[in-house]
Every structure is written in structure tokens, then in C-alpha cells.
Amino acid sequence: GAGVSQSPRYKVAKRGQDVALRCDPISGHVSLFWYQQALGQGPEFLTYFQNEAQLDKSGLPSDRFFAERPEGSVSTLKIQRTQQEDSAVYLCASSEYEMNTEAFFGQGTRLTVV
Amino acid sequence: EDQVTQSPEALRLQEGESSSLNCSYTVSGLRGLFWYRQDPGKGPEFLFTLYSAGEEKEKERLKATLTKKESFLHITAPKPEDSATYLCAVRDNFNKFYFGSGTKLNVKP
Fold this sequence. Notes:
heterodimer; A: mainly beta; 48% strand; B: mainly beta; five-stranded antiparallel sheet; globular
């Protein structure tokens, strides 16, 4: 497709359940980012991939959060044993090169933990 | 620590009433300052990239400018369809994007 695609758009999880969020970046884009956005706030950095290599995961809030991009294209963000504080919109973005270019965002996945 | 601060948090304008949004930043090695527009329930939509002080970019009623410490997004004669949250982000030497909290713009007809 032409843009960044994320699925599902909405996810309701019971506390303690594991979830997996998928991101299909723009074809050929080298860099891929995951962000968490709370209501009324700007996106907060979670992790960054350059091709299949996860170069920065400093923003992941706990060891319950895990991201992968095994073939350098599709990425999955996994959250284990979800907690209520994990409720947020999770945004994925990709950019063409590793530096000096804009990032294009998907529509996000709204996760609600009940 | 890299930081981005946007002001005001919210702005209400009458249609046709021009104004400016501010984004001030501190970053270790600026690799670009980016403006995005975000509509409710959607991901941020890219507007502009600025790389060096003095640079300006324009698109329809929007004009973005950059100094060494801040960027302005000028909105000339806004229309109701310009209502959205405008986000500013900087990219640093380590390829991280840092976002501000945004300015929520409401343009009334």
C-alpha cells in the first residue's frame, strides 16, 4: 500500500492478557519507529529499527514490552500481561533513510485494557 | 536531555484571523525539525521539514520557520478545516524523534 498500515485499529484486552500489534511500513523504508500516545499528549518514543536491527529500545516502559522486525519490513509490538496503564494509542512510523528524513505515521492502534 | 515545548496548548481563532504557533527545542545535534497535523482518531500527518536556522517552508495557508532555538508555524487567514492538533518534533543525532504535546487549534466560522 501507499502508506503505513497498522492492525488492529482497536483492541480491547483484559488485564493480564497478551496482545500483539502489527505494523506494515511503507515498502522500502529503512527506519521504523513505535510510539505510544496518551490522550492529549504528543507521541512518546518506544523503540526504533533500522532494517531488522533494533537500534534503540530505551523507550520501552517495561520488560513486558517487546518489539521485533525479523525481515526488515513488517514489525510487531507485543505487550505481555497487559495492565491498565498500557491503555493508549500505539503509533508506528517509517522513514525512507536512517537520517534526515521525515517519518510517516500509520493510523495507530487504540489499546484499551479493562 | 532533548526537549520540545509547544505553546499555546490551545488556540481558538475566528476564520480569517491569522496567528502563530510556537515550538521551542533543545536537542543534541538537530537532524531536522518536523511539523505534523493530527486529526482526532488519526495518526500524525506530515507537513514540513526544516533543517537549518533561517529556513522557511510554505504550504497553502501554512508557513514554517526555524531559528536555532525555536520554530514557528504561521497560519494565514485560517479556515475551519485547519482545525486540528499541530505537533512539532525534532530528530537528534541518535535518530530519535522527540515530540511536543501539541497545540490544539480550533477555527470558528
